[in-house]
Amino acid sequence: MMCADHQPVTIPPVGDVAIPRCAMVLAAGRGNRLRPITETLPKPLVRVRGRALIDHALDRLEEVGVETCVVNVHHLADQVRAHTARRRRPRVVISDETDALLETGGGVRKALPLLGDDPFFVINTDVLWLNGVRPALTRLAEAWDDARMDALLLVLRLVGANGYEGRGDFFVDALGRPRRRRAQEIAPFVYAGVQMLAPRLFEDTEAGSFSLNRLYTQALDETRLWALPHDGEWYHVGTRAGLDLAEHRLGQHGPYSDQ
Fold first, then answer.
1. CA–CA dist 191, 170 (Å, integer)
2. What is this structure's pTM?
3. How many domains does the chain have?
4. Are strands 47-48 and 51-52 parallel, antiparallel or unpaired?
5. Which of 32, 136, 20 is nearest to 70 (CA)?
6. Where does 32-71 have alpha helices with state H?
7. In this structure, what CATH number is given to the domain that contains residue 34?
8. Structural domain contains residue 255
9. I want to staple 95 with a disulfide (CB 3.0 to 4.6 A). Which of 39, 111, 148, 223 is the partner?
10. 26, 105 in Cβ contact below 8 A?
11. Predicted confidence (pLDDT) per residue in 207-226, tens digit
12. At what angle do helices 136-143 and 53-63 cross, to 10 degrees?
């Protein structure tokens, strides 16, 4: 099965690696840590370097040849709909969560009929990254091993996690096998908000609100979750401090919205 309502075409190759045809951008959150900005402007439309956060994510998908992107909406959904309707590539399909916010796992699960049967990218809207020698999404596709993986997370060294204030998420060995940090530990790697998932990760899940973290735990137990370190610059922009840092480091265009 291809992305819903999408005609088969040749998948753009990267060497002998096929880039996923479909992706999802998680855009339904309320953006509470960006209040008061997000009281009238949804987080995906907050700007850094003169572009809405959602466009930064869609630009990354376009540059590697992704054709269709599902965007879930909840908070101030009409604004996100109107903004993405102007986008030509990738083609944007809306997954409506206005009746109930489904969290990350529930949101992706609801969108599965739009994403098809093949592995797909998922990107958070509150992260920005600069690529290294090759695009991060290309590197994820190159590293994907369908026989071993249900999830492949882009991770970043804690020391380079601009705008991030936590204690890290994972320890990752030389083969890319992650382990969650324990309560009193500081982990050297942070989840970078970019991942590649197989639809089978959601087998045996029920409709409703749940976090992807629940599925990560299951995949870790089965050695089906892997990690790939990012080799470029990265910013968490889910807070005002993170936005200001990214704007300062990456250039100044402001203000925070395009309205």
1. 8
2. 0.90
3. 1
4. antiparallel
5. 20
6. 37-40, 53-63
7. 3.90.550.10
8. no
9. 111
10. no
11. 999 999 999 999 999 999 99
12. 50
